[in-house]
Amino acid sequence: MKKLLPTLLAALCIAGTAQAQDAGTLKKIKETGQITLGYRETSIPFSYLNDKQQPIGYAVEICSHVVDAVKAELKMPALKVNMQPVTSSNRIPLLQNGTIDMECGSTTNSVERQKQVSFGPTYFRIQVSAAVKKTSGISTLAELNGKNISTTSGTTAVPLLKGYEKTKNVDVKEIYGKDHGESFLLLQDDRVVAFVMDDILLAGQIANARDPSLYKIIPESLRAEPYGPMIRKDDPSFKALVDKALTALYKSPEMEKIYAKWYTSPIPTATPGKTINLNFPMTPALKADLAAPNDKGV
Amino acid sequence: MNNLDFAFLANASTLGYLWKGLQYNFQLTVVAAAGGVIWGTLLALARLSSNKGLSLVASGYVNLMRSIPLLLVVFWFYFLSPVLIQWVTHADRPPQIGADRSAYVTFILFEGAYFCEIMRAGIQSIPRGQVGAAYAVGLNYWQAMRYVILPQAFRNMLPVLLTQTIILFQDTSLVSLLNVTDFIGASSKLGQSTGHLVEVYTFAAPIYFLICFALSLGVKRLQKKIAIIR
Amino acid sequence: MDLKILLEQVPDGDGTWLMSLASGLKYTMIVAALAWIIAFVLGSILGVMRTTENKWAVRLGNAYVEIFRNVPLLVQFFVWFFVLPNLFVSTKHLVNSLDPLTYQLGASVLCLGTFTAARIAEQVRAGIQSLPRGQRDAGYAMGLSQAQTYRYILLPVAYRIIIPPMTSELMNLIKNTALGYSIGLVELFFRTREMGEMTFRYYEAFTAATVAYVVIAMIANRAMAVIEKRTAIPGFISGASAGGGH
Questions:
Q1: What average pLDDT does this structure show over A203-226?
Q2: What's the per-residue H, E or C state across chain C?
């Protein structure tokens, strides 16, 4: 037991160097002939698995336009595209250690995260709110006082909720789900009275539920947050390419079609043959973001 | 009883998805057991060698691995294995390996510590006189180990090695916490996307039991056979 | 690697990251201690049952051990947390009336306790069966009942013999508490992950946790060695081989 120290120190030395990453995603893509996109498995409709376990979604589609731009820039029409599943917890380390080159999911562009990673132009704007069962009779966040609620670990909802509890003198008891699907099931099975998360993700979970009519989203918000594609920090050439490709896309008429396809039309689910419709028209805030593409965080 | 509904499981693509997950567990188990036994045997030889430094490093490694939770080790190697592999292969940049492949590195290195202890006990169970006899016929330390001691130690320890391999098979389920789609990972994902989490776990637990129980019965049979040979 | 991060405040929390990890460590120790009590008592009963002359007691004990040893611990955690509360309306009401932390603690303690009990039952059985048959017969010959024979003759020696493998089991139990993370229990591993996720300082967080687990393992090891020394019977060599598992 006493001889642990040398082993431990050796491990730490390796660990220390692990954070140093070579910049230049484009250079890496060119040399390896492949690009790896990170996707989420249950972030409906941004990025999720269909019934053939293939990743699809709004963010995945938007990212495919970036991939096209990379192909054109590097003159590599046969560029290989790998898809790597990520979670709320591991998306940032995987981006940092080079496992993925860009994350196409439901990641909030926050100032805190900008210290570690960089973001492309915002493609969605959400409100952090709570889903409850209609039978619970709850219609405000304050009514959650003293109740059990679920939230997904690793998300911005966690510190927001803690902050809300402090300022409003509300005391809720959290259960942390490992992913949104698990957090929602705790609500479905009446283990908690509310699931606190980004409204669009809540809408996705509700639409996908066995009986969507049982749930509603509280019309109150802890904070508005922008979503964007996440890329490595300090990589100006790749960042410029992502910005240029997405600015062009957002301002084109195609963007409205992409939005309508995922938010106001029936979309496939993991259950064969089952489709859902989120009925989530574009908000004025998002319209403004798309008209003037930006990567401002909260 | 609440109404459980298993109907959603009964279609080819769902079962195929789970089966693919289970195959991953088997592959990981076989590779990690083979790699772990080799690595563990080397560690055991290092621990028992007369070279003080080598023996200290080996026992430090084994003790470290055995005193921290596997879950922690799984996450460590998940972060570190790209760097480790780069270091070993002298590549220009860390290789892109996802959790599914870093798990191979993790389990070989982790289980090696446990297999080391088993092999060490196996080697020590061989009477000392045999080592002396091997030296007397002119073999050196490594030859004595290779031709005289290890084959016997390995056979004596086979049931224990196999029992540890069944535990390894169970432990491979932890990769699901890194979001790998192994059997339990596939079950979780299926449960979440269909809203039937309770049903998939109710289904997965007996499947695991049947597999592991059958394997452990097999090991018991083997144990009896070997006991007679000796 | 910059360990100063440990002294920084948790965003919207009530202290530093170090305090957050310490509070996780507290739950790790509580769960381990309570689960050990269940495991020791239940495991001893089952282990003894498997050595008695009652066929059904032996079968019941064997069945228990096989079931709990042949399902991965992670899956057992899921069963305790997701499946069992949902099986019956009454259990669901009971679980929902509890504070989530209480239920997570309870589920973890029961899960780890019943799992470790199967392993301890195996050690106790092996310990008793390693004693010469003559000891049992001598007890009966002196007019002791079966219960008395166990209490005064077999168990005192058997327990001493199995102290080394029991040490491994205790250490395994402490390490296994990390799986409480899978059901959202705020133990040390959960807090480590949380710190990594929120500060992105994964290496610092995991290093701190690694050191903590190593120190606990050393303490548990020392404590059991002291117990072994204190209870040693002169002339007996204890030292059954350590069990496998983690």
A1: 91
A2: CCHHHHHCECCCCCCEHHHHHHHHHHHHHHHHHHHHHHHHHHHHHHHHHCCCCCHHHHHHHHHHHHHHHCCCHHHHHHHHHHHHHHHCHHHHHHHHHCCHHHHHHHHHHHHHHHHHHHHHHHHHHHHHHCCCHHHHHHHHHCCCCHHHHHHHHHHHHHHHHCHHHHHHHHHHHHHHHHHHHHHCCCCHHHHHHHHHHHHCCHHHHHHHHHHHHHHHHHHHHHHHHHHHHHHCCCCCCCCCCCCCCC
